[in-house]
Amino acid sequence: MTGRISFRTGAATTRTTGVCLALFLLMPTGCGSSNPGYEATLRYPARTQPLVLMVPTVVPTAPAAPGQLDAAILALRESGGRIANPKSLPENPRTELQAIIETLFGTPAAPTVNLPAESAPIPGLDLSAEKLAAGSRLYKRLCVQCHGLAGDARGPTGPFLYPYPRDFRQGVFKAIQNPAGQGKLALPDLGQLIRHGVPGTSMPAFDQLTDTDVQNLTGYTVHLSLRGEVEFRLLKALLDDGEDGGVDDIPAEARRQTARIWEQWRLAQEPSSVPVLPDSDEAITRGFTLFTAQSGAGCLSCHEDFGRKDVYRYDVWGGVNRVRDLTKGEFRWGADPESLTRRIRHGILAAGMPANPNLTDEQVRDLRAFVQALPYPPRLPPDLRAKIYPGSP
Ligand code: HEC
Ligand code: HEC
Asked: Can you give the pTM of this predicted structure?
């Protein structure tokens, strides 16, 4: 079933079948429906990549060279960033941390999520051993080359992509619904991302997966994120003396963090509706003014020349992203009016785009109507068209 994903045409399928047949003769598990998953002895690696505690406040001028993310992150210290390096952690807390994380979250072949008894369930999220193992097998096949064994974005291909694949271990995402979830995704959105991919990036659409496959992948992604964030929080506490101080009881703290982060995932599932008000030419014009005016919403300070100018911002992972060119009509986190309304209201905090809690619903509507019409000159009122696309008919 999953073998169909990348082969759409009959000709390609035939060729693939031939290759599979040849492979099958050589090694019986090479292709087809058997999906062997990870070796039983494989462990998730202990985190060695630097933790980004705070990115510099200066504006970056370009992304890191391909493959150089970790070096670029360590170098953020020189421009005022706060970075902690797990490699400087002594052997002893390191082993203890690794052991409790394995107790709570298992191994790649046998993943688990051991929640504290008091944690409330998340409806629709089945993290049974069987579902997680199925998710892990699919992940190994479809995602690991980019998102990495531990959801670390350091799969073999990951560091060479721009933008970088998501590092799940910070527990923060971009396509969020409900800010009460502290950056966690709603499960249906996570499913949609897997099905439709992220336009304008290398994240492909896996649109031929079954609903069960998508559910299993969703559960496994939550597992990796939860596991990675518990590790992140504990390493931060152990390395960053200033804020959290030391940790006396590592296993107890790991369980406490697991419960806390789980609660954020739970809150991220709660519905949070944003009003989607109707469009009009007047709304588009008011949106243009809000977007561009000195006293407006400040969009132009990043989306210079409506995003046509190369402007960059740090993301919370220490990467550097280009501010979106809004004349291209490339909306990565949902192009429908409701998703865009959310993006403008809640910002894309992980990417450095601020929220706009002080705008009225009408102002958010105006900005959304403008941003949606912007890529299409014929949809803009003539005077705006002349200002934004001089020379266009
Ligand atoms: C070819 C590389 C590649 C593969 C394969 C891939 N991804 Fe991604 N993924 C990306 C990139 C690139 C992004 C977008 C990063 C950005 O724009 O910030 C991304 C983003 C994501 C996000 C973050 C969404 C958000 O709101 O922040 C999730 C979740 C995700 N991918 C899950 C998966 C899963 C699950 C699979 C396997 C079914 C997968 N990806 C396969 C490259 C990949
Ligand atoms: C501090 C910089 C900053 C400011 C101010 C800012 N943005 Fe952004 N914006 C960004 C960045 C960076 C991205 C790319 C995010 C990503 O990685 O997907 C972005 C992306 C977007 C997107 C694309 C969303 C998607 O789904 O792909 C829209 C729409 C957008 N901004 C609208 C606005 C509007 C409207 C305003 C003013 C209210 C605004 N932005 C203010 C930095 C900013």
From this structure: 0.91
